[in-house]
Amino acid sequence: MSSRPGLVRAAVLALVVALTGCRMQVAVDIAVDDAGSGTVTVGIGLDDDALARVGDLRRQLRVDDLQHVGWEISEPQKEPDGLTWVRARKSFDDPAEATAVLSELTGPDGAFRGFTVGKEGGVLGTTYRVEGTVDLTAGPEAFSDAELAAALGGDPYGGTLAAIEREEGQRVADMVEFRVNVALPNASTKSYVASFDDEHPTSIDASSTVNSKAAVLLVWVLVAAAGLVAVVALRRAFRRVRA
């Protein structure tokens, strides 16, 4: 593979062949900490039927090439949801590096595109933001790529998608789910779900603000000042009543 492995694209191409009678999930987790550093984790989860057809999940993902460009690959592990997951994880030191890592998911023109991570500091606090687009409106064809197909050892679909759907009596869109989870400082994880049934691209736009100590102090000063004004006003009112 090239220096941009197109991780999500490679995974989908490698595994759609196993969709016969299976369930597959693709999860992208983006975690940013206070310093603006963090991790991008891509998880591929398969049910037992799919796993039996795929065989060695790590081998299908060509982990040597992924590791060469800095991705850490976990061993496949069955989890409580009933799926066997393998995850690729890559760290970043700042928002600019995070943006570069995210560009490796499917490449600049792929289904996952335009992802950026931002951190903007101000007097009152620091704002963090993750933006991007997941466009599955073209269906599974959004992941087609001749170079990756060759790198994966041949025709990644193992036949036409229409043939798979006829054999199973269900659509590919019903077998695959995509999810993007964004975790930012001082905020709950925000999740976005996309599928091959989407008529419009899914916009990812998550943000959070961490107030600075100066801002917190200012709030307390204002609260205290407001409380003092209220006490003075009440005392004056009480004196007028007594008079």
Outline the structure in words.
This protein is an alpha+beta fold. It has two domains: 7-211, no CATH class; 212-243. The protein has helices at residues 7-16, 48-54, 57-60, 63-68, 95-102, 146-151, 161-168, 213-242; strands at 24-32, 38-46, 72-73, 77-78, 84-92, 112-121, 125-134, 176-183, 190-194, 202-211. The strands form two sheets. Strands 1, 2, 3, 4, 5, 8 and 9 form a seven-stranded mixed beta sheet that branches. Strands 6-7-10 form a three-stranded antiparallel beta sheet.
- In whole angstroms, the N-to-C terminal distance is 89 Å
Rg over alpha carbons: 25 Å
What is the global morphology? elongated
Total count of helical runs of at least 4 residues: 8
Residues in helices, as a percent range: 25-40%
Q: How big a fraction of the residues is strand?
A: 25-35%
Short structural summary:
This protein has about 240 residues and is an alpha+beta fold. The chain folds into 2 domains: about 5-210, no CATH class; about 210-243.
Describe how the helices and strands are arranged.
Layout: H1 7-16, E1 24-32, E2 38-46, H2 48-54, H3 57-60, H4 63-68, E3 72-73, E4 77-78, E5 84-92, H5 95-102, E6 112-121, E7 125-134, H6 146-151, H7 161-168, E8 176-183, E9 190-194, E10 202-211, H8 213-242
Parallel strand pairs: 1-8
Antiparallel strand pairs: 1-2, 2-5, 3-5, 4-5, 6-7, 7-10, 8-9
